């Protein structure tokens, strides 16, 4: 996602097409992949983006007055072809983390990750540093902070009349029901009006749509993506994208050379749907 520079008031009125980029734009392919805007100084990119049609997407940037300042800074446009949109998404997320472009503010930082885990019917907020999210069971939701996870738990409790005290959000007064029970915002499990087992079952049912799927393979796999004129094997382990290869032998080398990855939120976001839906052929590596 592009985060534009604040526009000066006169900028849109004086927008001019960046003629110095016209020859580079003409050489861009009408195909999927990732593109990079580079400035005059240093190796840090100005912006990294992806598209199923690189030239068309870059031309969209060129037509936008609000991006005029970015374009004036751009001196070179690099690109990398991919077989399709899946590879473009994976490569974009990887390159933004590695190269830290100036204007990809939303993806360039490595985020803290928290989740809600059910343990013996009780929820707890857990951090990815202390728990392998890729293999952990009964995790629900991925959050950037402990506060965000607790806020999500409160919303679930409010929507389902669950007890804050039994969820660990508030301390229960000794021998008394929670305050929300008196307001009929809690069904009264804390006062014995609802069996604890039913309260726990309702909590788990409410969490189901947020379930984090554990990595379904024993190790790394290759996800085959077929394009019109090329195919790729996207190598993934524990929801972490390791790179793309043309052959199974190249894919195995990527696995052997890669350090042990942790859970990757972007990889999970991009891959979990297509993988669970069986949209691509899988090679065990």
Automatic annotation (TrEMBL):
Keywords: DNA damage, DNA excision, DNA repair, Excision nuclease, Hydrolase, SOS response
Gene Ontology terms for molecular function: hydrolase activity
DNA damage listed as a keyword: yes
Gene3D superfamilies from the UniProt entry: GIY-YIG endonuclease (3.40.1440.10)
Domain GIY-YIG: 30-105
Keyword Transmembrane annotated: no
NCBIfam families named in the record: PRK10545.1 (NF007833)
Record protein name field: Excinuclease cho
Originating organism: Luteimonas composti
């Amino acid at each position: 996602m592009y985060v534009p520079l604040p526009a000066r008031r006169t900028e849109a009125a004086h927008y001019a097409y960046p003629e110095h980029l016209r020859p580079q734009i003409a050489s861009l392919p009408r195909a999927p992949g990732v593109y990079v805007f580079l400035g005059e100084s240093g190796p840090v990119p100005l912006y990294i983006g992806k598209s199923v049609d690189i030239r068309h997407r870059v031309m969209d940037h060129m037509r936008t007055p609000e991006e005029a300042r970015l374009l004036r800074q751009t001196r070179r446009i690099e690109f990398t072809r991919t077989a399709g949109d899946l590879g473009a998404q994976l490569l974009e997320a990887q390159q933004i983390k590695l190269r830290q472009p100036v204007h990809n503010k939303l993806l360039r930082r490595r985020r803290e990750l928290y989740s809600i885990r059910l343990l013996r019917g009780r929820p707890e907020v857990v951090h990815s540093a202390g728990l392998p999210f890729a293999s952990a069971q009964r995790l629900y939701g991925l959050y950037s902070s402990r506060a965000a996870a607790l806020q999500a738990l409160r919303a679930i409790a409010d929507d389902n009349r669950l007890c804050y005290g039994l969820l660990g959000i508030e301390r229960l007064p000794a021998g008394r029901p929670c305050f929300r029970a008196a307001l009929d915002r809690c069904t009264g499990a804390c006062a014995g009006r609802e069996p604890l087992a039913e309260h726990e079952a309702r909590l788990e049912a409410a969490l189901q749509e947020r379930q984090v799927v554990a990595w379904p393979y024993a190790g790394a796999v290759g996800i085959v993506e077929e394009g019109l004129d090329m195919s790729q094997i996207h190598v993934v382990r524990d929801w972490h994208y390791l790179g793309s290869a043309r052959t199974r032998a190249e894919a195995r080398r990527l696995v052997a050379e890669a350090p042990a990855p942790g859970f990757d939120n972007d990889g999970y976001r991009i891959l979990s749907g297509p993988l669970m839906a069986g949209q691509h052929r899988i090679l065990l590596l």
